[in-house]
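worker-03 picked up job from queue 'complexes'. Input manifest follows; two sequence lines, order preserved.
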Amino acid sequence: MPMDLSEINFRHQVDGEKLVIGIAQDYQTREVLMVAYLNRDALELTLKTGKAHYWSTSRKKIWLKGESSGHLQEVKEIRVDCDADSLLLKIKQKGAACHEGYYSCFFREVDSDPDFALKIIKKKVFEPKKIYGE
Amino acid sequence: MPMDLSEINFRHQVDGEKLVIGIAQDYQTREVLMVAYLNRDALELTLKTGKAHYWSTSRKKIWLKGESSGHLQEVKEIRVDCDADSLLLKIKQKGAACHEGYYSCFFREVDSDPDFALKIIKKKVFEPKKIYGE
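worker-03 finished. Artifact:
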């Protein structure tokens, strides 16, 4: 039986693909780890497998998070916002979420003093070259 | 002096407007409250005033969060992701973030048993009619 996802509003469009915004959040610490888009198939695969799948707007294909790094995201719960066009994925992160080696992709902050430059405020948890190659 | 926001990548587009995704998170409890877009002017206003401003894709204008409800968001910190196209706003929320009366817009979950319907899992903290009128 196909899933009834008619309540979900895939209103965001990139190159004609209909998408929802997906936010991955550590289900225990509540740290926000990354943001990516999901199309309907990515959401179905996520629900069926319990592993986060996203839509890659650059590669134009579905992407199992961690397929090359092994850094899979086990989905514990999915929350939906009032417009039903954004999802909050409460996940258990294997390894780290960011391909640059940080646990969270939000490893920089806007530093107002003096010039609103971006400042790295986290430490790497893995070395990208060792996971993805040179 | 104009702010140097050249590192920020306003790559998301809705009706030609260049945008970044903004996630508002309670700076203390880490609860994710809402998602909206910011254009460059909304980000500048947010940085200048310390109050979250977004770009309304439906009204096609900048919107001070809380301008009609009084439910302002005081911005404590702004994190930037690896692609610099999404911002995490660590905020102190006055009242509630959701216009439907919930503290967070993510007040529903996808309920896998039995049919992936959306289920309300939070309680309202205000009655929308009292704030916005009928």
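worker-03 released lock.
Chain B has a mean pLDDT of 93.
The two ends of chain B are 44 Å apart (CA to CA).
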